[in-house]
Design a protein that fits this description.
Structural class: alpha+beta
CATH superfamily of the largest domain: Cytidine Deaminase, domain 2
Helix content: 25-40%
Distance between the termini: 21 Å
Bound molecules: zinc ion
Strand content: 15-25%
CATH class of the largest domain: Alpha Beta
Strand order of the largest sheet: 5-4-8-11-12
Mean pLDDT: 80
CATH topology of the largest domain: Cytidine Deaminase, domain 2
CATH architecture of the largest domain: 3-Layer(aba) Sandwich
Radius of gyration: 24 Å
Number of domains: 2
Length: about 450
């Protein structure tokens, strides 16, 4: 068992008031080097994080007696105006799937107290698994592991970040460790046990924003054609459920890949068109997701929404649910995504006319959608932090731009990523459907 030694009294180094935490450094010897100063600061923050994690664990203990393993973290957010916001995870007893993460809570506190204009200067983060039924605030094999915030939290943090925002991952520990600063250039596996890992949102959640352009403006032409295709009611002909099932279940596994892509695209555009025509002016965006499972079957999910809400992950949830309804043991090998903002589409054409060189934005799955996809990808398919690919299997993402079905050209309308491109530090969530626990240096919770 890991010994947790936390002072009876609050730590001397900080105090809380109105949701803020003030971090006060102990008096320092003027002869200290910047490395030594940073080390002292991080050691203090390490105690704060471990203490907060422990306090929250005590609360969980009172409420959730008998609960087994669960993931538990603490986050301290430093804003660019010098404030600190401290939070830990909150779990709901009646719904193990619902957890408010420490990092997202801290980020929410920060903008509620300081306004949307505030930016996160640095996020300090410590995670690790606990077990109430065995009275373990930190499981012994968790000591020293550095967790990253999950995809959903990274998305929230990203919205409140600027280019300089730093994320500092602490090794899970009792709070008694002397912490060493990160040395730039070191990879996770080169770190000393007591060393933090400094990183960025961009490193943990890359490709949030992707643009495409071509010299001839062909992408824009084809998006215009796609829009004509979608709104052209005369050509509208709904596929019957039987036809869809035929497309999704029967023929595709045997077709050459490019042909399969064509069929999937046609089906997705049909669904997009249906959403537009069914909306009667109320729906402004539509998303379609098709998942291919490892037994060669295809499952479709759609979602439509009001303005300014992301609808890619409800569409993905829908497709995932269809897949799991078919067979709980299936894993996703390929995920096709398409999103179309019916409201903004027509205005974009006018904008593009003014500025033909402006690249086209590719609608990407957000952090939450990436996390969801991770949960239905085989655990073995996800490379760990050191890049060890544990199996040849891997989920591929194919992000399709809307298009006129007959002119579909994968080179123009399709952008491919792997799950590793989208969540490079991903590791299977211990709470996921496919929990499987052995691990590299960093894992998302
Ligand atoms: Zn999270």
């Amino acid at each position: 068992m890991v010994q947790i030694s936390i002072d009876e009294q609050k730590l001397d180094g900080y105090r809380t008031f109105d949701g803020f935490v003030e971090v006060k450094l102990p008096p320092m010897d003027a002869n200290l080097t910047p490395f030594e100063r940073e080390s002292r600061r991080l050691t203090l923050i390490n105690r704060i994080l471990a203490e907060q994690r422990h306090i929250a664990w005590d609360h969980e203990f009172e409420r959730h007696e008998g609960k087994n393993e669960f993931w538990h973290g603490a986050a301290l957010i430093e804003t660019n105006d010098g404030r600190f916001f401290l939070d830990s995870n909150a779990h709901l007893l009646n719904s193990p799937a619902i957890r408010n993460c420490a990092e997202a809570l801290g980020a929410t506190d920060a903008f509620q107290h300081r306004g949307y204009g505030t930016r996160i200067k640095r996020l300090y983060f410590m995670g690790g698994r606990a077990d109430i039924s065995h009275d373990l605030p930190l499981l012994p094999d968790e000591e020293g592991k550095r967790y990253t915030p999950c995809g959903s939290c990274l998305d929230v943090i990203n919205k409140l970040s600027d280019d300089k925002t730093q994320i500092t991952l602490f090794p899970a520990n009792s709070g008694s460790w002397e912490i060493l600063p990160y040395e730039p250039g070191k990879s996770m596996d080169q770190l000393a046990r007591e060393q933090v890992y400094d990183t960025t949102v961009k490193e943990l959640l890359p490709h949030l924003s992707v643009h495409r352009a071509d010299a001839q403006g062909k992408i824009k032409e084809t998006l215009r054609a796609a829009w004509d295709y979608i709104r052209d009611a005369e050509k509208w002909q709904a596929l019957s459920r039987a036809e869809e099932l035929h497309l999704l279940d029967k023929e595709l596994p045997n077709l050459p890949a490019k042909e399969a892509m064509r069929e999937i695209n046609a089906l997705m555009m049909q669904r997009m068109k249906k959403m537009y025509h069914d909306s009667e002016g109320e729906v402004t965006t539509g998303s379609v997701v098709v998942i291919r499972s490892d037994d060669g079957r295809y499952y479709i999910g759609t979602a439509r929404s009001n303005p300014r809400t992301s609808d890619l992950h409800p569409a993905m949830d829908h497709a995932i649910q269809n897949m799991l309804d078919g067979d709980m043991l299936q894993h996703a090998t390929d995920i096709f995504l398409m999103s179309c903002d019916f409201e903004r589409f027509p205005n974009l054409f006018a904008k593009w006319k003014e500025n033909p060189a402006q690249p086209v934005t590719v609608p990407m799955p957000d952090g939450d959608a990436r996390e969801r996809a991770k949960k239905v990808t085989s655990a073995d398919a996800v490379p760990d932090m050191q890049g060890t690919v544990l199996s040849a299997k891997s989920a591929n993402f194919h992000i399709l731009l809307p298009n006129n079905v007959k002119d579909f050209d994968p080179d123009i309308h399709k952008v491919d990523f792997t799950l590793r491109d989208l969540l490079p530090h991903a590791y299977v969530n211990p709470r996921s459907l496919r929990a499987n626990g052995n691990g590299g240096g960093a894992r998302t919770h």
